[in-house]
Amino acid sequence: MIVIAAALVWAGGLMWFAAGLPHDVEDSARVTDGVVVLTGGSDRLASGLDILAAGKAKKLFVSGVHRLTSVTQLQRLLEREPEMFECCVVLGRSAKNTAGNASETSRWAAEEGYRSLRVVTGAYHMPRSLLEFRRAMPGAVLIAHPVFPTHVKLSQWWRWPGTASLVATEYSKYLMSLAWTRIMDDPQDRDGSGT
Q1: Can you give the residue range of the structural domain that contains 75?
Q2: Could you give the percent of the chain with pLDDT greater than 90?
Q3: Has residue 89 been placed in a domain?
Q4: What percent of the residues of the chain are helix, what percent strand, and what percent coil, each to the nearest 5?
Q5: How many domains does one find in the chain?
């Protein structure tokens, strides 16, 4: 009975999570100090570059880039003006996961003196990304800028096995991040008096 009850709670939470995923960019006009793109698809980087080209951010930080990838390679792949990459695109190479994305972006933003960022990632990945970024950058203004890969069918996601698996996995990771955030925010744990 306990297992069944836990499964029902998890399934109910999954429905809530999926229903809350963004379906569009709510605040596309707002100008921020910078824009950060979390690696994981060319559509993310293209969106970040469009934001930069529109003058809605000073610099673009690409978090989680492979160590052998260069700015020149990205410029050629996306067929954009080299001047934009030379002045305004910075690659972060230390992140291995979403928490790492938040950590290395926080360091970069602090170095630049940036206090507001537009966060570009897949819509299904946005809740966990914002959770990690808010933990790493509690004083920053963060604007969600989701992208919508064509292979991820968020509309009636349960009918598409690949998307259903992706959403379920992302929900489970979100729960783990949420639990870790709660532990880290516990005043007793922070001052060392917790058990």
Answers
A1: 24-149
A2: 68
A3: yes
A4: 55, 15, 30
A5: 1
Length of the chain: 195
Between CA 25 and CA 22 the distance in angstroms is: 8
The angle formed by the CA atoms of residues 16, 152 and 73, to the nearest 5 degrees, is: 130
> Does residue 128 fall inside a structural domain?
yes
3-class secondary structure per residue, 94-161: CCCCHHHHHHHHHHHHHHHCCCEEEEEEEHHHHHHHHHHHHHHCCCCEEEEEEECCCCCCCCCHHHCH
Q: What is the model's pLDDT at position 194?
A: 43
Q: Is residue 191 part of a domain?
A: no
Task: CATH number of the domain at 100, please.
Answer: 3.40.50.620
Beta bridge partners of 183: none
Say which residue, 109 or 7, is predicted with more confidence.
Answer: 109
- Note whether residue 79 is domain-resident: yes
**Least reliable range by pLDDT among 49-58, 98-107, 122-131, 185-194:** 185-194
Task: Please give the model's pTM, rounded to 2 decimal places.
Answer: 0.88
User: The tokens 């809530």 sit on which residue?
Assistant: 16
CB neighbourhood size of 146 (10 A): 23
